[in-house]
Amino acid sequence: MKNTRREFIKTSASLTGLGIVAANDLLAATARREKKNVAASDQIRVGLIGCKNQGYTDLTSMMRNDPSVICVAMADVDQNILNGRISDLQKEFPNNGKVEAYSDYHKILDDKNIDTVIIGTPDHWHCLQFVEACQAGKNILVEKPIANYIAEAELMVAAAKRYNNIVCVNQHQRSGEEWIKAMEIIRSGVLGQITRVNLWANFAYGTGAPIVPDSPVPAGVDFETWLGPAKKRTFNKNRFHGSWRMFWDYGGGLMTDWGVHLLDMGMWAMDAKGIMPNQVYSNGGRYAFLDCAAETAGTQTAIFQFDDWQMVWEQNAGIQESPYKRLYGTAFIGTNGTLVCDRDGYEVFPEWSNEKNGPKMEPIAKFEGDKRSQDRHTAAFIKCIKNNDRNTPCTIEMGRDAAMLAHMGNVSYRLGGVPLVYDSVTQRFVDNDKANNMLYPKYRAPYQFPKI
Predict the structure, then answer these.
(1) Packing angle of the helix pair 253-269, 396-414 (nearest 10 deg)
(2) Side-chain half-sphere CA neighbours of 223 within 13 A
(3) Residue 39: what pLDDT?
(4) How does pLDDT run across 83-128, given as a tens digit for each residue?
């Protein structure tokens, strides 16, 4: 199915015109959480599901942004992590009050006094917990990628629409000042026609951890519940905290971890919201670091072809040298110049004109960001909750688009580099049964693919 891209915006846009809530009014209070009592009716009462890493970061970012944010409960299948995080929270926010500790996240969803949940669990749990949170009427901040399968991502969009929840995906680069300013430059047209967007991520952790044998489940860990809808297997620490992303049952490697962030920036810059590529092709392999435990690709290239531009993803797990001396980043290649951006900032490289014997465009100063995109993002989410506004800085649709591109790249890779075409109407790949068999997860009993 052929998709046409929206007319590219050539004029500079304001922050609100780009659909971004800068939330500077809330950021003014982030240096210290104000020590004051907030009426119960004005509180944003949060439950955290999945406490170890990014979920806890999301929670504390919200709490630093606004004293009305109260943590009511945390849920995790690892009692060691759960108890440690509650202790951490009480030390950092002594005025917060009691935090309930649950091993079963359903108790958070059942609590009518909790209006907002953060989903910080591994990717294979996102869809189930998200749909249930929608049905429970919660506001939701969900980690990226939003799902571990394409069909899950499509279902999550449908659930949010049906239950009309306020949803924000933590693709927080959409709230970074460096990215917002970069989008203004791109949309001003000074770079000329952009025909190619290059994305890359080279990280040591992408190799996975050194291979170790299976071992007993650690004390305090409910590993059966951690596996959830994924297939049953014995415990191995390399498939648990920290490195689960490198196994297909739970994640999609660098492509779905960092790729989602950067693919999102390419789609944003090219005004391709809701538009799938005409064709996706990806190839690569695990050629080095074979003494590490991983199933996902080490070296991988994916090409996303649109009508009049293409986006290219490259990854090299275990490699630290990278284009433009940036470990990860984006390069928007225009006929007049190239803009390169990561979370540290951006710089522009003008093209040379032989006719003018000079650059094709006026120089643009290098810009360094303030590295506060996470706090800006959660501040904007808080503002949306207070205003009953569903236009969050990263909507579930934006999260779906980025996740689907990443998963399409991985499906093509896993099928040996076969070109794929996705039909957004039928929500299936065109003329490829093998690819269509990879759209849906195979949940093990008693878990079932959600229905709405």
Answers:
(1) 130
(2) 16
(3) 67
(4) 999 999 999 999 999 999 999 999 999 999 999 999 999 999 999 9
- Taking the C-alpha atoms of residue 180 and residue 304, their distance in angstroms, rounded to an integer, is 23
Task: For 310, list phi and psi in degrees, rounded to 5.
Answer: -135, 155
| Residue 32: per-residue pLDDT | 42
Name the residue with tokens 């004293």. Answer: 67
pLDDT the model gives residue 18: 40
| Those residues with Cβ within 8 angstroms of residue 359's Cβ, 6 or more apart along the chain or in another chain | 337, 350, 351, 352, 353
Q: For strands 116-119 and 352-353, give the pairing.
A: unpaired
Number of Cβ atoms within 10 Å of the Cβ of 441: 20
Does pTM top 0.70 for this prediction? yes
pLDDT of residue 19: 39
Element spanning 386, H or E: helix 373-387
Query: Where do runs of H (alpha helix) occur along 105-200?
Result: 106-110, 123-135, 150-163, 177-188
DSSP 184-207: HHHHHTTT--EEEEEEEE--GGGG
Residue 242 has a pLDDT of 81
Ranges of the chain whose pLDDT falls below 70: 1-37, 39-41
CA distance to 193, 275, 301, 390, per residue, from 271 (Å): 13, 9, 23, 20
**Helix 150-163 with 123-135: angle, nearest 10 deg:** 20
- Comparing CA positions, the residue from 79, 46, 76, 49 lying closest to residue 61 is 46
Residue 328's nearest CA partner among 243, 418, 261 is: 261
204 contacts: CB under 8 Å, gap ≥ 6 = 317, 318, 320
Q: Strand 310-316 relative to strand 328-334: parallel, antiparallel, unpaired?
A: unpaired
Q: Which two tokens stand for residue 268?
A: 């944003």
Phi-psi region of 325 (alpha: psi -120 to 50; beta: other; left: phi over 0): left
Q: What are phi and psi of 419, to 5 degrees?
A: -65, 140
Predicted confidence at residue 37, as pLDDT, reads 66
Q: What is the DSSP letter of 237?
A: G
Strand partners, 341: 330, 346
Instruction: Supply the pLDDT for residue 42.
Output: 86
Per-residue pLDDT, 30: 44
